[in-house]
Automatic annotation (TrEMBL):
<dbReference type="InterPro" id="IPR026045">
    <property type="entry name" value="Ferric-bd"/>
</dbReference>
<protein>
    <submittedName>
        <fullName>Extracellular solute-binding protein</fullName>
    </submittedName>
</protein>
<keyword id="KW-0732">Signal</keyword>
<dbReference type="Pfam" id="PF13343">
    <property type="entry name" value="SBP_bac_6"/>
</dbReference>
Length: 339
């Protein structure tokens, strides 16, 4: 009977995708930590390797676009496979997921004393459904061999200048959390009718709308586009590799935390909490800083030229309640209009 039970349990763990079957492979309790993340695969693998080095165990990183991962977590709601969701182009997809029952409550001790909103930036969820890990700034990368700093766009309206026709790339809002943020921000500021008119023009200016949030910046580095819409660290990362890329922080733009959340009912809640704690540690924050992210931990200095002090003045207010009510509808309307 003991052998039969052990076989059933082992088979169940394989079918559930929890590859750890002994304490030498697992994190807490001998179980693997499964991380869902749309962030750069090499970056998240480096985080996972550091966690394994410091804490032992095994972190299984599963990569896909933000909206793809959200749909996957919804499909797995009755039998969750992930322990932690980290990253998604900022807080908007996390806010939209709060009412769907896929996020558990957990705030690390490191963030326990944070205000929910600090300097106009929402740092964590009021009910503990997510916590900010780093700061992202949405803006424009540009190819420095094709565009001078003086002529590069400085505002979102500048992207509609006829000189940029066929020279812009931005991510597909149906797949990318980065691009969904862009769309929601314009709607909150302009109203929906005017925002749709804006995007009808912006789509005509573009030569590609890839699914990945980082792809437009890579396209700029390769000379496939003059201007790419994306986050700050994407441009500075390419620049550090010797690519002809730099970044413009637009006047009035989203500045927000990129969060992590514990998954409701995930197979390794203890390990998931430990991994979120780790993401705010100096070890993990240093990796983020080395990838040109703006760290939240004040003991870590980033390689990026941007700091929270420098960018908070251009941060726009985001109506989170409106986002929660309209996130899926707006994304589906984008599909109907432009795909």
């Amino acid at each position: 009977m003991t052998g039969l039970v052990a076989s059933v349990l082992l088979a169940g763990s394989i079918l559930a995708g929890c590859a750890g079957d002994d304490t030498s492979e697992g994190g807490s309790g001998g179980e693997r930590i499964t991380l869902y993340s749309p962030e750069t695969p090499d970056f998240t693998k480096e985080l996972a390797a550091k966690y394994e080095e410091v804490h032992g165990g095994k972190v299984d990183v599963q990569y896909a676009g933000t909206n793809v991962l959200v749909n996957q977590m919804l499909a797995e709601k009755d039998n969750p496979k992930a322990d932690v969701w980290y990253g998604g182009g900022g807080i908007l997809p996390f806010e939209a997921a709060v009412e769907r029952g896929i996020l558990a409550e957990y705030i690390p001790d490191f963030a326990a004393d944070w205000d929910v909103v600090e300097d106009g930036i929402k740092m964590k969820h009021e009910d503990g459904k997510y916590v900010g890990i780093e700061i992202f700034v949405l803006g424009f990368s540009y190819n420095t061999e094709l565009v001078t700093e003086e002529e590069a766009p400085k505002t979102w309206e500048d992207l509609l200048d006829p000189k940029w026709e066929g020279k812009i790339q931005f991510p597909n809002p149906a797949a990318s959390g980065t691009a969904t943020l862009m769309v929601m921000d314009q709607m909150m500021r302009k109203g929906e009718d005017e925002a749709w008119k804006y995007f009808e023009q912006l789509v005509k200016q573009s030569n590609s709308m890839p699914d990945s949030g980082s792809a437009p910046t890579k396209g700029v580095a390769m000379g496939e586009a003059h201007i790419g819409i994306g986050f700050d660290f994407m441009a500075y990362e390419q620049k550090s590799k010797g690519e002809s890329v730099d970044f413009i922080v637009p006047d009035q733009t989203p500045v927000l935390v990129n969060p992590a959340s514990l998954i409701e009912g995930g197979p390794n809640a203890k390990g998931g909490k430990e991994f979120i704690d780790f993401l705010l540690s100096e070890d993990a924050q240093q990796i983020m800083a080395d990838w040109y992210h703006i760290p939240i931990n004040p003991n870590v200095e980033s390689k990026t030229p941007l700091t929270l002090e420098k960018v908070k003045e251009v941060a726009v207010d985001l109506d989170i309640d409106w986002v929660n009510e309209n996130y899926d509808r707006v994304r589906n309307e984008w599909k109907d209009k432009f795909q």
